[in-house]
Amino acid sequence: MKSMELEQHKALFLDFVSNFQSDVPLDKENYDLKRDHTFRVLHWAQQITKSVEGECGRSPDCLRATHLGALYHDIGRFPQYRTWKTFADPKSTNHGRLGFRTLKATGFLRDIPEHWRKVIQVAVALHNRREIPPHLPKDMDFALRVVRDADKLDILEVMIAHLAPDAPPNPVVTLGLSNIPEWSDDLLEMLRTGHLGAYTRMRSLHDFRLLMLSWVYDMNFPFTAQCVLQRKNWDDLAQPLPDDPAIRAALAPARAHLEALAQR
């Protein structure tokens, strides 16, 4: 479908991003980070859909809409950062909802049939929601799950790089969290009991690691789990955590869940 041609929308997205420039080094770094993140998420979305090709029963238009959802998923990050100089939603606004409003205002989707336009909009609006709403129509549910998994695959790599001991500090990316040898008992319990961690419980970089490890309970495709294991993302997040019995007890079932998904 011509109105959903990916290359055309890539050009529209890059033109949109060109409006967000800065001579301030940190601001430029953060705008560039989100631009580059977008295209890596698109890549992972394409890889995920390829991994289930022939199994998911989705039409070519559904796959195109899914990929456009990935391309536009973080469009709200740019006005968010310009206004609040943060990527922390609790300190600013929900960037998924802002992305929905921003995308609607651009008119980029105006020529796309209503059904597929809504699929893309849902992927943008809900990609950062803590849990996927039940009973979504099949095309919306599929696109949202792909975008959420693709987003995680890139965020894990980005955050692991920024959490490395020799990484230059960027408090915007690490959400201003302290590098202290402490962790939240609430986050640890969420991980131990198979629940997604809550951003509102984070106080330290160890908490951020625990939260990202809890994402295994919100991964939807075997390909995603396989990548996390093959790229050693799990090890890179888990190994810096203190060697504490409570932490080990929380990690074990989460790792088992990840391995089971990878083998599904």
Describe the secondary-structure layout.
Layout lengths: L5 H12 L7 H27 L8 H13 L4 H8 L10 H12 L7 H13 L11 H26 L21 H8 L12 H10 L7 H9 L2 H6 L6 H18 L2
- The structural class is mainly alpha
CATH architecture assignment name of the largest domain: Orthogonal Bundle
CATH fold label of the largest domain: Hypothetical protein af1432
Rg calc: 18 Å
Question: How many helices in DSSP terms?
Answer: 12
Number of strands: 0
Outline the biggest β-sheet: none
Low-pLDDT ranges: none
Helix content: 55-70%
What is the general shape?
globular
How widely separated are the two ends?
33 Å
Describe this structure as you would to a colleague:
It contains twelve helices and no strands. With 264 residues, the protein is an all-alpha fold. It has two domains: 152 residues, Hypothetical protein af1432; 86 residues, no CATH class. Helix 6 runs parallel beside helix 7. The mean pLDDT is 96. This is HD domain-containing protein. InterPro entries: HD/PDEase_dom, HD_domain. It holds the Pfam family HD.
